[in-house]
Amino acid sequence: xxxxxxxxxxxxxxxxxxxxxxxxxxxxxxxxxxxxxxxxxxxxxxxxxxxxxxxxxxxxxxxxxxxxxxxxxxxxxxxxxxxxxxxxxxxxxxxxxxxxxxxxxxxxxxxxxxxxxxxxxxxxxxxxxxxxxxxxxxxxxxxxxxxxxxxxxxxxxxxxxxxxxxxxxxxxxxxxxxxxxxxxxxxxxxxxxxxxxxxxxxxxxxxxxxxxxxxxxxxxxxxxxxxxxxxxxxxxxxxxxxxxxxxxxxxxx
Amino acid sequence: xxxxxxxxxxxxxxxxxxxxxxxxxxxxxxxxxxxxxxxxxxxxxxxxxxxxxxxxxxxxxxxxxxxxxxxxxxxxxxxxxxxxxxxxxxxxxxxxxxxxxxxxxxxxxxxxxxxxxxxxxxxxxxxxxxxxxxxxxxxxxxxxxxxxxxxxxxxxxxxxxxxxxxxxxxxxxxxxxxxxxxxxxxxxxxxxxxxxxxxxxxxxxxxxxxxxxxxxxxxxxxxxxxxxxxxxxxxxxxxxxxxxxxxxxxxx
Amino acid sequence: xxxxxxxxxxxxxxxxxxxxxxxxxxxxxxxxxxxxxxxxxxxxxxxxxxxxxxxxxxxxxxxxxxxxxxxxxxxxxxxxxxxxxxxxxxxxxxxxxxxxxxxxxxxxxxxxxxxxxxxxxxxxxxxxxxxxxxxxxxxxxxxxxxxxxxxxxxxxxxxxxxxxxxxxxxxxxxxxxxxxxxxxxxxxxxxxxxxxxxxxxxxxxxxxxxxxxxxxxxxxxxxxxxxxxxxxxxxxxxxxxxxxxxxxxxxxxxxxxxxxxxxxxxxxxxxxxxxxxxxxxxxxxxxxxxxxxxxxxxxxxxxxxxxxxxxxxxx
Lengths: 253, 252, 315
Hints:
The complex is a heterotrimer.
Chain A: H1 3-29, H2 39-48, H3 50-84, H4 86-101, H5 104-115, H6 120-143, H7 147-155, H8 160-197, H9 203-212, H10 216-244
Helix pairs in contact in A: 2-10, 3-4, 3-6, 3-8, 3-10, 5-6, 6-8, 8-9, 8-10, 9-10
Chain B: E1 8-19, E2 22-34, E3 39-43, H1 50-57, E4 65-70, E5 80-83, H2 95-99, H3 101-105, H4 110-123, H5 139-151, E6 157-161, H6 169-186, E7 189-194, H7 197-203, E8 206-210, E9 217-221, H8 234-249
Parallel strand pairs in B: 3-7, 3-8, 5-6, 6-7
Antiparallel strand pairs in B: 1-2, 1-4, 8-9
Helix pairs in contact in B: 5-6
Chain C: H1 2-21, E1 23-28, H2 38-46, H3 48-51, E2 54-59, H4 66-72, E3 78-81, H5 83-91, E4 97-103, E5 108-113, E6 128-131, H6 136-147, E7 156-159, H7 164-170, E8 175-179, H8 183-189, E9 194-198, E10 210-214, H9 216-221, H10 223-242, H11 244-254, H12 261-270, H13 283-295
Parallel strand pairs in C: 1-2, 1-3, 6-7, 6-8
Antiparallel strand pairs in C: 3-10, 4-10, 5-8, 5-9
């Protein structure tokens, strides 16, 4: 069996095994469906309600995408500011870390007062959660330039802008992409939490409503859809990474 | 064609670095002069301050005392090109795009730069490497690209910091010949630093012997050997012995 | 002789300890503790449950849809829940039975600010309404709008969890689902000119807004305990009505966080709403509500009324 085939089959087999175990336990122990439904019912619900789930998924996907873009841009700008202006680093670094400790529910009312109930509060929540890894990795990445290469640039008479665009920024891309992959998964969580603050559509909203209506299989189907959305996003980021960082692959591959 | 005086003159250069409460003198009262279009090598043991010398000439560090003067016709930092010791090829650029880095920074027209680079790549055996990334190239190829990049800055004085130091002996020998070929065709004034005596003799018009720290130039040797030089020729070997003697004799 | 006395004392102490500890009953509230729950807290404070040999523990749910689930799974014994939520749960097959009511009136309605130009339900067209309790609130407010001739599609219904009043007062929402004995008072205290549309005025049948439900097996296992519990609760309700000042004091002793003007006024407003004798046995109410929910598509199939509640435990 080729390596590639093995790589694709391994998680599928593991998942199938875990689902089988779950199904067995639920049926043998007799766990009530309104607490934990068996995976068979979840899958059936998923396909039966696919259109409905997808209509909510699109809303959440939009929030995730905008949140990720906003958070990434913010994170990158912040990283550049920290690297280039030491004063900003001393002042802002501890605040950034503190910002991650504040639970979203504490700032939710503020967001709603400022931004209302449209798309924006959820986009902002997602952005707040996912800017952190981009910022931190961005700082490390931007600082990862070797001093010799920096001297080379200076000896060539490069301006600070040129040093940033031709040296620091391209050199920071591997670290940035690492941060970006993390941010993509966090953005999914962020958008969902944002919807729990106040929403009328979206997978997070659907989870709340289905839970309240005791349609637990639908809750899990929504979680399944959310997982797929997250995987899709992660996959897209990885493809972009492969394209941008194609110089990393050694000739032997 | 040639200016009447040396193109580069270093006079009484002194450089020191702070270290553990006092200052370490790296270079002291170092003087040298380069004539245009010549190949000069600074020869000295490792750690004697060769890199510091080049960096001072390139304007990357401030000397404590002394002067560095470039001939009026070639004045300005923009006439000195510095090739650092470590591999400074940008991994995310192809060899060709790495080579045109200098032109890019100086905002020269891109198409011309690419054409020139392609020409040099082909002329000096790098055609296959043009669209490859540094990670796909051997150490020797990468150094060749770096040298081409230095030449493509179109500057008159080239400072080369032990460019062959990290290569294995076979590759080093290849590259020494290759450097000769390139310099033979493209010219320019070269100041090389190295600890390899044979390399110095093979390439240089004059060899400057550097003392250990605090370093100065103790002797200037002009190997009057006819080119092309052979490391097996008897006069070559004689000169090599002489120089080795000078180097070891310099130690206290 | 001496040994006999020792055994006698030991036996007395043992039987005393049984009486003191009592049979445990875990009661899950429907929401955060608020004046609706006064009879429970006052009864605990007064020792009324203990006097019957009951050890009653009051539990706050993490989520308003938890109580019925927990009762059906027998993680807790008695769940407080709105009648509508209970009927939805029964429709989804949860094994539950209603044994009594805490509040036998309607609590809810829509609250809006006059300053946002809303004087009648018709003015809510094109506006944004916030709610916190699904599934019952969206159904109720949809019915109110319908009754007033507005289509639900003309209104945006947003699930805002618990942040209703703040959002209303700041203008982020135009109207919110509200309890007539709580949020209305909150708005008034903030100095806002508010208007309240009680749900029963807009085509919504009367309901028992907080009932007590248990797993049917529990009724068989702990019949006497449940009966005693309901007796104690019923007496507590009567006691509160006769002594509002003292009992408010007891209430805030148990819940010091609620010792403020808002809760005091809410407490007073709730007094007429408690179910006399914890009765929930008007079949007409059950019939009408089930029909209403079935028509709104919230119940898959109606359940025979007798199977929804039992009056046999009522005092």
